[in-house]
TrEMBL record:
The keyword Flavoprotein applies. It comes from the Bacteria. The lineage of its organism: Bacteria, Bacillati, Actinomycetota, Actinomycetes, Mycobacteriales. Belongs to the FAD-binding monooxygenase family. The keyword Membrane does not apply. Gene3D superfamilies: FAD/NAD(P)-binding domain. This is NAD(P)-binding protein. SUPFAM superfamilies: FAD/NAD(P)-binding domain.
């Protein structure tokens, strides 16, 4: 029988966010030795870095939590329907303590390269602290919104005040009181932070290039009765989540938007509006498939925005016109549109008066100079592939992931790539990822990966690799699924459209969480169909 290579550890896990932590837990439970690397000083991933004012999750807390530990599920009590960043981070720290997960990690240690040796079937991983480790398997649990996008704006370095990126927010609280604050960007991060900053700042200037759809969260404290009800039947809630399209126990109205009367349609939109947040995109099943159906949702939301914003001309500026509603993630907000009714908040429409330069005292647009003490960059991320593409990953025959993905990510099942044996990725491109509940997605991936590694071992293999054909087929399947929707028509970060020069490809798998889970199960049940094991 093949003799396994001698390596420092069995598995290297890169990242201590939601999926990395669970990977350490799960693989350790299988008796495997692990080395974890995390660039931050502690656990939490996205929730470690995104601590800007107002940061919350837009998936309900009771669903956006691990299901693998039923005692934890019973013991932990979420306080609000949509948890704050602070509460989610506290939860992840608690999970890390509970299962002693930190001991697997080297923190403040960034992986800079991973190189495969085909003779030995071994990965050699090198970090920026000089630590080098070998392993049979590598799991990149590096997140999909983990590399900040800092736009190249002339003069940015010259600004004499404070500047912050929402995705790299400092740990010490930022005090905005009495300050003039410019916020660049109106995605989820900008829209969540603007109302909170406006409460204490002297003035907030919102630099908006593209308006976004946003729906009030309808956030509320969770009552003891509600929590008890959820906990009494948590397993069923999780079962429904896994059987759903988006990884939460929610489903669309059973008829299409164009199959019902105008009255019924309004009633359904009212109901979904009152539920709050991004799920509005899924009120009717055809909403992001048919332009006509989408228009009915768009008209409904436009009227709501006009109701919330006192100045009709300002409302016009805040209403999106460039994409069908839901084809960019609808923001889940707390008081965004009504914030523009405040005297200390100004909207600058960058489509009319673009930023020309940043100067020591503030921002010059083509129309006006704005004196600022603080600039907040809420300019998003090089999403889904940005973090992996910054690591020098070299597979068989020196093939680099960067080259392989130069025209867009090429995965099999979102988990593996041809040419890169024994390498796994979690919750990224080619999987439902950000289109579904990321915590259950992380569990789904890690469970699959750990079973896969177990299978390779049980069959005396040293390496498993997706075939080129299976990658071609999966890429085609992902593209075909996306082409059946309105999503590719939007200039979204799902499409890579927010990063100059990035290939325009719809990156997540949009066939649904449950369908995807069934595909993963089938592949495993068929002896890892589409892979070569050697
Ligand atoms: O980033 P974004 P985000 N000049 O890319 C603008 C998740 N998330 O951090 O659209 C001027 O959406 C850019 O303008 P444009 C969630 O999945 C979730 O807000 O490119 N503006 C856009 O307005 C979300 O979708 C939560 O024209 C510039 C903004 O910056 C994802 O993370 C909270 C610019 C970036 O918006 C990303 O959200 C936070 C420039 N040069 C994040 N460059 C919740 O759970 C960029 N922009 C609620």
């Amino acid at each position: 029988m093949f003799k396994l290579p001698r390596t420092d550890v069995d598995v290297i896990v890169v990242g201590a966010g939601i999926s990395g932590l669970y990977a350490v837990y799960k693989l350790r439970a299988q008796g495997r030795s692990i080395a974890g690397f995390e660039s931050a000083a502690d656990v939490g991933g996205t929730w470690y870095h995104n601590r800007y004012p107002g940061a919350r999750c837009d998936v309900e807390s009771i669903d956006y939590s691990y299901s693998f530990d039923s005692e934890l599920q019973q013991e932990w009590t979420w306080t609000e329907r949509f948890a704050t960043q602070e509460e989610i981070l506290r939860y992840l720290e608690h999970v890390a303590d509970r299962h002693d997960l930190r001991s697997a990690y080297s923190f403040e240690t960034k992986v800079v390269s991973a190189v495969w040796d085909d003779t030995d079937s071994t990965w050699t991983v090198t970090t920026d602290t000089g630590v080098v480790k070998t392993a049979r398997f590598v799991i990149f649990a590096t997140g999909v919104l983990s590399t900040a996008n800092r736009p190249d704006i002339a003069g940015a370095e010259s600004f004499a005040g404070e500047s912050y990126h929402t995705g790299e927010w400092p740990h010490d609280p930022v005090d905005f009181s009495g300050k003039r604050v410019g916020v660049i960007g109106t995605g989820s991060s900008g829209i969540q932070s603007i109302p909170v900053i406006a409460e204490s700042a002297e003035r907030v200037v919102v630099f908006q290039r593209t308006p976004n759809y946003s729906i009030p969260a309808g956030n509320r404290p969770l009552s003891e009765e509600f929590i008890a009800e959820v906990k009494a039947d948590y397993d069923e809630r999780r079962r429904l989540s896994r059987a759903s399209g988006g990884g939460t126990p929610n489903s669309a109205y059973p008829k299409g938007a164009l199959e019902v009367s105008a009255q019924e349609r309004t009633r359904v939109y009212d109901e979904w509006w009152n539920r709050g947040g991004y799920l509005f995109a899924k009120a009717f099943p055809d909403q992001t498939i048919s332009k006509e159906a989408n228009d009915t949702a768009r008209e409904y939301v436009e009227a709501k925005i006009r109701d919330m914003v006192n100045d009709p001309a300002l409302a016009d500026e805040l209403i999106p016109t460039d994409h069908p509603i839901g084809t960019k993630r609808i923001v889940t907000d707390s008081g965004y549109f009504t914030t523009f009714n405040r005297d200390n908040v100004t909207l600058v429409n960058l489509r009319k008066t673009p930023i020309e330069t940043i100067v020591p005292t503030g921002i010059d647009t083509s129309g006006e100079h704005f004196d600022l003490d603080v600039i907040v960059y809420a300019t998003g991320f090089d999403a889904m592939t940005g973090t992996l593409s910054r690591i020098d990953i070299r597979g068989r025959a020196g093939r680099t992931l960067l080259d392989e993905w130069s025209a867009g990510p090429r995965t099999y099942l979102g988990l593996t790539a041809n040419g890169f044996p024994n390498l796994f990725m979690t919750t990224g491109a080619g999987s439902p990822s950000v289109l579904a509940n990321m915590v259950l997605g992380a569990e789904q991936h890690v469970d699959w990966i750990s079973a896969c590694i177990g299978y390779v071992d049980a069959h005396g293999g040293s390496a498993i690799e997706a075939t080129e054909q299976s990658v071609d087929d999966w890429v085609a399947e992902c593209n075909e699924k996306a082409a059946g929707t309105l999503f590719p028509t939007a200039n979204s970060w799902y499409m890579g459209a927010n990063i100059p020069g990035k290939p325009r490809v719809f990156m997540p798998y949009i066939g649904g969480f449950a369908n995807y889970g069934a595909i993963l199960d089938d592949v495993a049940a068929a002896g890892y169909k589409g892979f070569d094991i050697r």
